[in-house]
TrEMBL record:
Its EC number is 3.1.11.2. This is Exodeoxyribonuclease III. The record marks N149 as: Transition state stabilizer. The record marks D218 as: Important for catalytic activity. The record marks H248 as: Interaction with DNA substrate. GO terms for biological process: DNA repair. It comes from the Bacteria. Keywords: Hydrolase, Magnesium, Manganese, Metal-binding. It comes from Panacibacter microcysteis. One of its GO terms (molecular function) is endonuclease activity. InterPro entries: AP_endonuc_1 (IPR004808), AP_endonuclease_F1_CS (IPR020848), Endo/exonu/phosph_ase_sf (IPR036691), Endo/exonuclease/phosphatase (IPR005135), ExoIII-like (IPR037493). Probably binds two magnesium or manganese ions per subunit. The active site is at Y106, D147, H248.
Length: 257
């Protein structure tokens, strides 16, 4: 089974890119973030024509997450991260896909830091850690994937000295990610490529993609039952070079049945 995650940075504006990538790679599951579209503006007809069923949680102008499935129908578990009934951001959706539980997330950016946005990022992160811990403790096969807005180590960022005060790289953010990993989750990319420089995001400015001045902020975390089923993983970096593309590239893993 091939599972992918892709921050599309506006699903309607980037729809030709998304459809081209889906046709080229045909993942069994595609988790999308940053739809930037209200619920009723999700391009369901085009997604269906591409051969995918969809669950989505939209939000006008911002955020938004979706889970697309090919040759199967996902059963929604929740579209709200537990812990704060007043949080109206569309940042999480969770579904059952065959025997897998798949959580698709778009963790807050948090800049400028320090400040209210950074406080929200850390509080959202704590809620996610609590929920992830419950999922891990269930013993079920679980995949938690999406845009985490975290560079876990210096290896995951071009010129880390320039990012020390950024919300994606501050010690509190990295500590929260490590707290998540300490529950037992497997970072799929780092497990297969422990020493490789791998990025998933390149800014639109200063020719970041051309210089490979990137960040690794899109991650796959696997529960214990899936660790030994991981057979491949990668980044479709070339998609970042397409015309009118997202500033993220799709990331994918393959699990043996």
């Amino acid at each position: 089974m091939k599972i992918a995650t892709y921050n599309v940075n506006g699903i309607n504006g980037r729809l030709p890119v998304l459809l081209r990538w889906l046709n080229e790679t045909q993942p069994d599951v595609a988790c999308l973030q940053e739809l930037k579209a209200p619920q009723e503006k999700f391009p369901e007809e085009a997604i269906t024509a591409a051969g995918y069923n969809a669950l989505w949680h939209g939000q006008k102008s911002w955020n938004g997450v979706a889970i697309l499935t090919r040759n199967t129908i996902a059963t929604e578990i929740t579209r709200v991260l537990p812990g704060d009934p007043e949080d109206l951001h569309s940042r999480y959706i969770e579904a059952q896909v065959n025997e897998l539980t798949i959580g698709c997330l778009y963790l807050p950016n948090g800049n400028p830091a320090p400040g209210p946005k950074f406080d929200y990022k850390l509080s959202w992160f704590e809620r996610f850690i609590k929920h992830a811990g419950e999922l891990y403790a269930s013993g079920k096969p679980v995949v938690l994937t999406g845009d985490y807005n975290v560079m876990p180590t210096e290896m995951d960022v071009y010129k880390p000295e320039r990012w020390v005060d950024d919300a994606l790289f501050r010690p509190e953010t990295r500590a929260a990610f490590q707290k998540l990993l300490d529950q037992g989750w497997t970072d799929a990319i780092r497990t297969l490529y422990p020493k490789d420089v791998i990025y998933t995001f390149w800014d639109y400015f200063r020719d970041a993609y051309g210089r490979n001045a990137g960040l690794r902020i899109d991650h796959f975390l696997l529960s214990k039952k899936l660790t030994n089923k991981l057979v491949a993983a990668g980044v479709d970096k070339h998609v970042r070079g397409w015309e009118k593309t997202s500033d993220h590239a799709p990331v994918w893993i393959e699990l043996k049945d």
